[in-house]
Amino acid sequence: MDTVLVTGGAGFIGSHLVDELLRQEYGVIVVDNLSTGNVENLDPSALLYSWDIREFKSLEKLFQIHKPSYVFHLAAQISVSESTKDPKKDADINILGMLNLLELSVKYGVKKFIFSSSGGVMYGEDPERIPTPESCKENPISPYGISKLAGEKYLNFYSIEHDLEYVALRYSNVYGPRQNPHGEAGVVAIFTKRMLEGREVTIFGDGENVRDYIYVKDVVNANMLAMKRAKNVSLNIGTGIGTTVNELFNKLCKFIPEYSMKPVYAPPRPGDLRRSILDNTLAKEMLGWEPSWKLEDGLRETVEWFRGKD
Ligand SMILES: NC(=O)c1ccc[n+]([C@@H]2O[C@H](COP(=O)([O-])OP(=O)(O)OC[C@H]3O[C@@H](n4cnc5c(N)ncnc54)[C@H](O)[C@@H]3O)[C@@H](O)[C@H]2O)c1
Q: Is the whole-model pTM more than 0.90?
């Protein structure tokens, strides 16, 4: 069976991908500096190198030893607000770190490079269409979004110049078990944890901001299909369905019936988009992928997981 490298494999999405790769009997190598990831997330059958993707020499040793056939690149600085405060650090990890992996993927003959990009930040505040297809103009406004778009542009360059095959997956808002509830994003994880602890939930703005929530297992399926299908393309991975934050809160209340507090409304956060919904038609055509988890089912499973954790 092929050996596969997963960067960011101790993180939220990466650890679910590792589980599926192991289930399908791939040999799995993980590079993760554990800055936001957690060893507890990771199946011990995966081989973990707690390294930083910015360390080219260490990475090269790993490529020499394991010669991975596929690279799933998920390691990233994922905070939009951190990226605004420190654009250089964001670029150092998200652009230069990725270039290390691209250089080594070419040198060691990787068959395909699958990149975790972002559809949520790719099309900016006012896309030409909602749900937004890939044909709409990219217009990221944060350094994080700019670094994701730069990553896709570099993939295009390496595919033309060095025949490296790739698929870039532009996720909408991913949620599910193991998501970090202490970040600024990941509203499902943040709300669920606070509600289970009987604490106040803060909604920024009027709660009518709309997002496209995709369950982590659907995202894993898209990654698995991208290994074998489609090449040299960026694909939206979302449901095409919009949900407001108020609706999300009410749905969570159904699964946490002991919670009786009302949400607290705070001023909107600068830079928060009003509406973000992705058109997933191209992923359906090119990967044969479609989301199979209804929001209610995904939320139920997520709440159960958070309950079991405490
Ligand atoms: N969660 C979402 O809604 C979402 C949406 C769009 C795109 N994405 C992308 O998906 C990927 C995974 O995100 P996630 O939500 O699982 O976040 P996460 O923080 O759980 O995972 C990121 C992982 O990368 C590791 N990492 C960070 N910097 C590193 C470095 N310099 N060297 C090595 N490892 C490093 C972290 O320790 C962590 O385990 C990211 O690339 C993110 O940008 C996520």
A: yes
Active-site hit among 70, 123, 144, 158: 144
**Would you say the CB of residue 138 lies under 6 angstroms from ligand 1?**
no
By the 8 A CB rule, do 196 and 262 touch? no
Task: Give me the CATH topology for the region 175-210+242-276+296-309.
Answer: UDP-galactose 4-epimerase; domain 1 (3.90.25)
| Ligand 1 in reach of 83 Cβ (< 6 A) | no
Q: Treating both helix axes as pointing N-terminal to C-terminal, what angle do 187-196 and 295-309 enclose, rounded to 10 degrees?
A: 50
Q: What is the DSSP letter of 59?
A: H
- Contact, 72 vs 6, CB < 8 A? yes
In this predicted structure, the answer to whether residue 185 has a pLDDT above a threshold of 90 is no
Atom of ligand 1 nearest to the CA of 75: 24
Amino acid identity of 215?
A: Y
Task: Read off the DSSP letter of residue 109.
Answer: T
Would you place residue 295 in the very low, low, confident or very high pLDDT band (cuts 50, 70, 90)?
very high
Q: What is the pLDDT of residue 1?
A: 83
Mean of all residue pLDDT scores within the chain = 97
CA atoms within 13 A on the CB side of 91: 9
Q: Is the CB of 202 under 6 A from ligand 1?
A: no
Residue 4 pLDDT grade (very low, low, confident, very high; cuts 50, 70, 90): very high
CA atoms of 106 and 158, how far apart (whole Å): 8
Query: CATH for 3-174+213-239?
Result: 3.40.50.720
Residues of the chain with CATH 3.90.25.10: 175-210+242-276+296-309
pLDDT of residue 310: 62
How many whole angstroms separate alpha carbon 243 and alpha carbon 161? 41
Q: What's the burial of 34, exposed, middle or buried (CB within 10 Å: 0-12/13-18/19+)? A: middle
Rounded to whole angstroms, the Cα distance separating 269 from 296 reads 27
How many angstroms separate the alpha carbon of residue 258 from the centre of ligand 1?
32
